[in-house]
Amino acid sequence: MTEAPTPVVIPPELRPADGRFGSGPSKVRSEALVDLAAAAPGLLGTSHRQTPVRDLVRRVREGVSALLELPDGYEVVLGNGGTTAFWDAAAFCLVRALSQHVVCGEFSAKFASVIEACPHLESPLLVEAAPGERPVLSGDADADTIALIQNETSTGVQMDVVRPEGAHESALVLVDATSAAGGLRVEASEFDVYYFAPQKCLASEGGLWLAALSPPALERIAAMTATRAVPASLDLSIALENSRKDQTYNTPAIATLFLTAHTLDWINDHGGLAWAAARCDTSADVVYRWAEKAPFATPFVKESRARSHTVATIDFDTSVDASAIAAVLRANGIVDVEPYRKLGRNQLRIALYPAIDPADVEVLTRAIDFVVAEIE
Fold it and tell me: 341 in a domain, yes or no?
């Protein structure tokens, strides 16, 4: 009988203090969970139309506004369903007729496919790049909406948020910031809609979308919902009306709201977006320097300026099985570093969100070195 291989045991000194490196859902800070348990009797299981939960929604809205340093006239709106639901809402309430999309991975492509499927809209204009690369965008003057993505979670490509040259002056700039908001720098003057979900940089759970809206975006929503039939759950004017009352149209996950508010307070109390982004910069420097020096690894994204500082994708030499590394790490309590499934590469994907301690990222790289030496 063939004996089973001896499991690889990573020494304690090579195990991060917290082994969660998932790109979403991401690490939830233990301090937040302790505070949630303490607050639970007055929050969980109570009406979301009453003061305790409405105060929580207000904290989230004010926290996002402070985080992004929103100018006067911008508003923070939230609703249930996550980013996927917001794409559907945008198709009804933000895109007038023709949208232009950057596509550089699974999630940027999904939003474009939502628009393509809408009979009331024209086929979207696509500016595409291969996985691992970022598109070079020149705005189309006929497009009334420009759809950008700040960080493509599937590939680890990040892009600058800038109003594209050539776009019509009335075009709205929509930015998918799902794995960027709270971890990557952004200027509010460069967008009209900055939307995201909180289960990544904001160290919360899923099922919620949040959006910072400029005055032109608010005007577009009013115009579109006045002339289109829109399902109530996708109607951004209804979401706006409820958000102004510090509530959501339908029942939210209160724990998700609490964890989101907790992380926003944590980041803003430590210096805001500049502090959080610098923390992600440190983690990114650790992981990319390691990958460039390791004989068996290399950053998947070749252009250094396009390498994400919140989601790192690292390719491995064909002599090393990245899935075997991930399996050993998982058996030792270091989890969720597997690559995006549809990308199909021999790589690891490592979240670098603000809640993840840069020191743990450094220990993770040494743990990978150890595992590679053990399984070769």
Answer: yes
User: Angle 254-269/272-293 helices, nearest 10 degrees?
Assistant: 90
**Which residues are within 8 A (CB) of 291 and not within 5 positions of it... i.e. 6 or more apart?**
297, 298, 299, 312, 314
Q: How confident is the model at residue 342 (pLDDT cuts 50, 70, 90)?
A: confident
Arithmetic mean of pLDDT, 197-222: 98
Which residue's entry shows tokens 């603000």?
354
Same domain, 74 and 85: yes
Burial class (CB in 10 A: 0-12, 13-18, 19+), 20: buried
pLDDT over 90, % of the chain: 96
CA dist., res. 148 & res. 103, Å (int): 8
CATH code at position 330:
3.90.1150.10
Residue entry with tokens 């348990």: 37
What's the pTM value of the predicted model, to 2 decimals? 0.96
Using the predicted structure, report yes or no on whether residue 336 has a pLDDT greater than 90: yes
Across the chain, what does the average pLDDT equal?
Answer: 96
Question: How many Cβ atoms sit within 10 Å of the Cβ of residue 163?
Answer: 16
* DSSP code per residue over 151-168: EETTTTEE----PPTTS-
Joined together, the tokens standing for residue 127 give 């500016």
178 contacts 199 by C-beta, under 8 angstroms: no
Query: Is 296 in the same domain as 195?
Result: no
Instruction: Say if CB 145 and CB 121 are below 8 A apart.
Output: no
Residue 1 has pLDDT above 50, yes or no: no
**Domain match, 176 and 65 both:** yes
For 355-373, what is the mean pLDDT? Answer: 98
Main-chain phi, psi angles of 247, to 5 degrees:
-155, 175
Omega before residue 25 within 30° of 0, cis: yes
Query: Cα 74 to the chain's mean position, in Å?
Result: 21
Same domain, 257 and 363: no
> What integer pLDDT is reported at residue 341 of this predicted model?
86
Q: How many CA atoms lie within 13 A of 276 on its CB side?
A: 26
333 shares a domain with 243: no
Q: What is the domain range of residue 307? A: 17-28+272-375
Q: Are 69 and 186 in contact (CB under 8 A)?
A: no
**Among candidate residues 269, 295, 314, the one where a domain is terminated:** 269
